[in-house]
Specification:
The chain is of the alpha/beta class. It is built from 18 helices and 19 strands. The strands form four sheets. An eleven-stranded mixed β-sheet has the order 5-3-6-7-8-9-10-14-13-12-11, with helices on both faces. The protein has a three-stranded mixed β-sheet with strand order 2-1-4. The protein has a three-stranded mixed β-sheet with strand order 17-18-19, covered by helices on one side. Helix 10 crosses helix 11. The longest helix has 22 residues. The N and C termini lie far apart (51 Å).
């Protein structure tokens, strides 16, 4: 039975509210900020920064920026750990019992991001609904609720001793699955018990069995991790295309990493005439944006879902941050957010490119600390992703995963970039692939091109093909192996620490 016509009206209503965002984005964001400050005034942070006065100020943006200093995770780690132990009114009102464990910083292997009831109810869950709403608006013939949604999630496995704590700590996806509305369980697979299993040697075969014979209309997850499950499903059904297994499959909502290197793989295992791909920008800290058109990979920034955004120009300082009214099309900014999980002027570490300002649409440019500038080339993560995608297209190949590190110049050699790649489908001619990759990077990045010119400063990239499972072994060895979770292989490193760990395997 197709429930799509019966509930489409609600999603249509959700999508229509975005029509005014172009003309009223600054007004909407100001309202969000005032509301967050008023709700957060009775917290430890709110008392110390006098949120009540800021919330009533006429020039709220300037006063907020003046009186509340920007923070990174290590600045608030002690406060978050007090919340984990059950202390109330620290960063957000009340007691927070859910925390998303994600990749760590210099101060610890993992971060623990508060997932408050407000952030679930006003941000994470509405963000997912907005993704569906924007998709349905573009696809009036959709039958997305005629079958099941296959959501690939993680677990509550974590590294903390919680015997004296009320907290639930694990992957964001585990919290979302655990806390999602009861009605959502009727339209998704797998069942909650299977979805939250921590042991992937048990979980993966169960996922394959449960999904291979279900009527799946939509899938959601990280592209690289989903491939492991899809491979098992195709083998189970002796099929070469997902549409042989799921004839009614129509859309993949993907996020977490760039889809570009995996696009050709998914095109090859689906029927393109029946398949849609929609990018989402969600993280432990919040659900930020969703693709709102099939004609562009740019994502609509969700500006009324309990997040206030500030934008730091790339290369600038937090003092240079602007609100949404000050962004410029084509420029790259570091995101700084304020939201209802108690993150106040929190430097997310992500950079975005502004693709339009009326309304604001973005693409993810990369991480502030994920780049290579060992030789003055300033290669950004999005340069690497786009270069890899185009080289793969030209050579009919596809990576399963990869990372890049510099090889520094020595007495008898120039410096170069070393690409460690585990292949889903390797190129027939590795030299041709390396040449095409180099050419694409030179087109995409003028600094890289300048350092490559004449071969005086930077040699051509070196490709090292890794055996199947290498990255999984590295993740497990480094304590970061969680299939379907927030752990991701860093694409770019400015030193060789990760590369050497992988090569030593």
């Amino acid at each position: 039975m197709d429930f799509t016509p019966a509930i489409r009206w609600w999603f249509d209503h959700q999508a229509r509210r975005t029509d005014i965002w172009g003309s009223r984005s600054a007004e909407i964001q100001e309202k969000v900020l005032r509301d967050l400050l008023r709700r957060g005034h009775a917290t430890l942070t709110g008392f110390s920064r006098d949120f009540s006065s800021i919330a009533d100020a006429s020039d709220i943006h300037a006063m907020y920026a003046r009186d509340v200093e920007p923070v990174e995770y290590e600045d608030i780690r002690p406060l978050v750990m007090r919340m984990v132990k059950g202390e109330r009114n620290v960063l957000w009102p009340g007691v927070c019992v859910d925390f998303a464990q994600s990749s760590g910083t210099s101060g610890g292997k993992s971060k623990f991001i508060p997932i408050t009831r407000d952030s679930l109810r006003r941000n994470h869950i509405p963000g997912a609904a907005d993704s569906v709403a924007l998709y349905l608006r573009d696809n009036p013939a959709s039958r997305i609720f005629a079958g099941k949604g296959f959501i690939l999630g993680g677990s509550f496995a974590n590294e903390l001793d919680l015997r004296k704590s009320p907290a639930n700590v694990g992957d964001l996806s585990a919290t979302l699955i655990s806390r999602c509305p009861a009605l959502a369980n009727l339209v998704r697979i797998p069942d909650k018990k299977t979805a939250l299993l921590a042991d992937w040697s048990v979980k993966l075969p169960l996922l394959v069995k449960k999904a291979a014979y279900a009527d799946v209309t939509n899938i959601s997850g990280v592209p690289s991790w989903f491939l492991a499950v899809i491979k098992g499903i195709l083998a189970e059904r002796n099929a070469s295309s997902l549409h042989e297994v799921w004839p009614n499959l129509e859309v993949f909502f993907h996020g977490g990493i760039s889809f570009a290197p995996y696009r050709q793989i998914y095109y090859g295992i689906t029927d393109p005439s029946r398949m849609h791909f929609r990018e989402t920008y969600n993280a432990s800290e919040g659900f930020f944006a969703a693709q709102d058109s099939p004609d562009s990979s740019a994502m609509l920034l969700l500006i009324d879902n309990d997040i206030y955004y500030e934008f730091i120009p790339l290369g600038g300082s937090a003092d240079d941050a602007v609100d949404i009214s000050g962004v410029v099309k084509g420029k790259v900014y570091e995101l700084m957010i304020t939201c209802s999980n108690g993150l106040w002027r929190y430097r997310l570490g992500d950079t975005v490119r502004i693709e339009s300002v009326d309304p604001v649409r973005v693409t993810v440019a990369g991480r502030t600390r994920r780049f290579i500038n060992a030789f003055g080339e300033e290669l950004m993560e999005d340069n690497a992703e786009r270069g890899m995608a185009e080289a793969c297209r030209l050579n009919a190949c596809a990576p399963a995963n990869y990372t890049v590190a510099p090889v520094f110049a020595g007495a008898s050699n120039r410096g170069r970039h070393q690409w460690l790649i585990e292949w889903q489908n390797p190129p027939a001619d590795m030299n041709a692939f390396a040449r095409d990759l180099d050419n694409e990077l030179r087109k995409l990045n003028s600094d890289y091109d300048a350092k490559r010119s004449g071969g005086f400063f930077l040699d051509a990239p070196e490709i090292i093909s890794l055996s199947t499972g290498t990255f999984d072994r590295w993740l497990a060895a480094s304590g970061n192996h969680k299939l379907g979770g927030q752990r991701k292989v860093p694409r770019l490193s400015n030193d060789r620490s990760i590369a050497e760990e992988i090569l030593n395997l």
